Amino acid sequence: MKVAIIGAGIVGAAIADAMAARGARVHLYDMRRPGAGASQASAGVLAPYVEARPGSPLLALGARSLAMWDAWVAALRARARIPFHYDRSGTLEVALGDEEAAHLRRSADWLAAEGIAHEWLEGAALRDREPQVSASAAGGLLIPSHGCVQVPALVAALMASARQHGATCETPVEVVHVEQKTRSVGGTDVPPHVHLRVGDRVEEFDHVVIAAGSWSRRVRVAGVPVFPVRPIRGQLLHLSWPGESLPRRPVWGARCYTVPWPDGSLLVGATVEDVGFDEHTTVAGVRELMDAAVDLLPGAARASLDGVRVGLRPATPDQLPLLGPLAGHPRITLATGHYRNGILLAPYTADVVTRLLLAGDPDPMLALTRPDRFQEAR
Ligand SMILES: Cc1cc2nc3c(=O)[nH]c(=O)nc-3n(C[C@H](O)[C@H](O)[C@H](O)COP(=O)(O)OP(=O)(O)OC[C@H]3O[C@@H](n4cnc5c(N)ncnc54)[C@H](O)[C@@H]3O)c2cc1C
Predict the structure, then answer these.
(1) 332-349, pLDDT tens digit by residue?
(2) Residue 307 is part of which domain span?
């Protein structure tokens, strides 16, 4: 099968790697370079039990994907020689006041009811586990199954692995138009195929996957309304932590979260801003994150600011991805709209798309993410 993938962010790269490894002839197109969209800005935290509400479909998707990460990383490391940091030391959610503590205790009750491992920490036990957390913290919720990953290097490893299996990637080139075609030869229908307008050429494929993140609505598909994906800007600080006692794991507060990297740096994320396709950093965004980081981890006041990253999260109206075949256009599959959890959901996304396209095996959970679900609601 000859497959085109539009977009080489974490989602497109993960699908390309999985499909190429199973024998598909994969061609990626990216208007920038691989990983240069939202993925380069991501903090790489894998935390469904913080991100999703109890009982929500996002929780079901996130928990399923989280369970795939260890094996996914092991297989990728065996194939690609590009190292990337991956850690499953958990996350620590911290309450800085009584109201936040009450909220966290409710989360702990819910986790207990669901049978999800967690630990409530306060006082000396909290400081012992994470000495950098503010001494005034009222309590903390440790979820040991959570983790984090270094995203830019992960995307590079996925691309290297995909290329080893014969995938190609053309950049910088924008795919602006997609059309599923049917034809008959000598009166007999032959399977439909897809035409892609790539710059000023037209290319033909058996199947196309649209993984263009926030820019997905700019890829026009003949006969289909624009996809309901819009950009939500996130700014993220890159700090150099002073001394050696970096926090051991991602620490989550009500106003920011922090992620330690093995090179001694600390990421502080992230703003959530509805400003269209504007990818600039702002003084207000940086100040908001700096203030929140110092409240959570007072040692951050002595850190140096190494840089600010910006990315556009691809958001949908219900904050679930648009994942699956387009109704009436079975040769066109969407894998976009992963909003705040595109890294967490990458192994699941790659797996369900690959099984669907190469084995005709639709995963039952695809019912949650049908791309046409908003058309029916209108
Ligand atoms: C500050 C920040 C922090 C985040 N933290 C986390 C986190 O901790 N955990 C988590 O799971 N998620 C996190 N996210 C969300 C995550 O980064 C995104 O969900 C994910 O990167 C989306 O991946 P993607 O491949 O769909 O999109 P992108 O990475 O944006 O990739 C889309 C690609 O498509 C290309 N493209 C677009 N249109 C076209 C076209 N017409 N033709 C050719 N190429 C095209 C673009 O150039 C781009 O490279 C964070 C996001 C931000 C901004």
Answers:
(1) 999 999 999 999 999 999
(2) 89-148+230-315
